[in-house]
Amino acid sequence: MSASKWESDEEIQYFREYLRIPSVHPDPDYEPCLAFLRGQAKQLNLPIAVYYPANDLNPVAILTWEGLEPELPSILLNSHMDVVPVFPENWTHPPFGADIDEEGRIFARGTQDMKCVGMQYLAAIRALKRSGARFKRTIHISFVADEEMGGRYGMRPFVTTDDFRALNVGFGMDEGLASPGEDIPLFYAERAVWRVYFHISGTAGHGSLLLPNTAGEKLNYIVGKMMEFRKVQVQRLQNNPELVIGDVTTINLTKVSGGVQSNVVPPLLMVCFDCRLALDLDHQEFEEKLHKWCDDVGGGIEITYEQKQPKVPPTAIDDSNPFWLAFKKATDELKLSIKPQIFTGGTDSRYIRQVGIPALGFSPMNNTPVLLHDHDEFLQADTYLRGVEIFKKIISSVANV
Ligand SMILES: [Zn+2]
C-alpha cells in the first residue's frame, strides 16, 4: 500500500515504463525503446533524430534542446538502452516488471545500469523546461545501443560519423556506478583493454621423450612472466591505500587451449590474458616487453589481439576544464561528496574521450548497493528522484558554461 506515493509520481511512471521494455542481450530489440523515446520527445516538445551508425538493428536516438547560442559546442547527455541478460529464477521480482516494494525499491534490470540515468536526464529537462529555463548551449540527449557488448554497433562507430561531428559536442556525460556509502564516484578516465593471445608453437613429438623447445616450456615461461607482472600490481595496490583498482594494471589469464592427445607433445598451445592497462603504463614499452619474453624463450610465438585499445587521455579535472568547474560548482552547492576516480571497466565515455571531447561518468546513486549486472538489481525511488534534482542542477550549470 505504501508504495502508492511513488507509483503516482509522473517521473517514476516514465522510469518504470522504460524499465519494462526488455532491451536485453543477446538479441535486444530496440524498436520499443525508440517508440517510447519518440513519445517522450513529443511530450517534451523536442525534436528526435535516429541514426544507424553500424547497421539497421542498432539505433542511436538523439533528442535535442537547442540553446540560446546554438553555435557554441553542445552538451551530450549519453545513456545506453541495452541491458545485460537475466536469470529470472534468481530474482525475487520479475526482472522486467519494475515492481515497487513497500520500501520504494524498484526492481528491474537496468534500474542501475543505466536506464535510470537516461530517464533522469529527461526528467530533469522536463522540469527545467516547465520552469521556463533556457540555456546558452544546445543539449543533446542520446540513447545508444550495444554498450554492453563494447559499443561495437553503437557509440564506437557513431563518434566517427559526420552525424556525430554535426552535433558539435563540447562536453559529454555518461554512466558511473552506484555506491553503498555517502560518496558518489565520478569517473574521468578509463584504462585501456587489451585481450592478448599468445599462439605458442614448439617441438612436437612423443610424450616419452625430453624434446627441446616444447610449447609447454614456453607456455610456462610466458605465464610466469605475466604473473610476475601481475604480482607487482597486486603489491602496488596493497602498499598504497590511496590506490584503487582503476589506478593499476590488471592482468588475468582467461583462456588456455591446445593439445592433441594425452601422450603427444603438442605443436601448438594458446594462452589468453585479459589486460587492463593503467594510465601510467607506457603501451609501447608493455608491448615490447611481451615480444621480448617471446624472444627470450626461443621464439616461435605469435601474439594477436582480440582487443587493443589505444591510450586515451583522461578528462581534466582541474581549472583547465570549464565543464569540470561547472560540474563541481553544481555538486558543491548540493553538498555532494564526489570522489573522482578511474573507471574499473569500460563504458562508452572512452569513445567520446577518444575523439578529444571531455567526458565524465556519473550516476547519482549513493547509499545504494552496487547491483549492476547482478540479480535483483534495484534502485530506491527517492534515490532516483533525488538524482533528477542533482541532474537539474548539473545540467543548468554545464549548459551555461
Ligand atoms: Zn552501463
From TrEMBL:
Subcellular localization, as worded in the UniProt entry: Cytoplasm
Catalytic residues, chain numbering: 82, 147 (proton acceptor)
Highest taxon above the source species: Eukaryota
Family: Belongs to the peptidase M20A family.
Domain (Peptidase M20 dimerisation) ranges: 189-298
Cofactor: Zn(2+)
Single GO cellular component term: cytoplasm
Signal peptide interval: none
InterPro entries reported in the protein's UniProt record: Aminoacylase-1_M20A, ArgE/DapE_CS, Bact_exopeptidase_dim_dom, N-acyl_aa_amidohydrolase, Peptidase_M20, Peptidase_M20_dimer
EC code(s) of this entry: 3.5.1.14
Gene responsible for this protein: LOC108043640
Residues the record lists as binding Zn(2+) 1: 80, 113, 175
GO MF, any single term: metal ion binding
The protein's name in its UniProt record: N-acyl-aliphatic-L-amino acid amidohydrolase
UniProtKB keywords: Cytoplasm, Hydrolase, Metal-binding, Zinc
Gene Ontology BP term (one): amino acid metabolic process
Cofactor detail note: Binds 2 Zn(2+) ions per subunit.
Residues that coordinate or bind Zn(2+) 2: 113, 148, 373
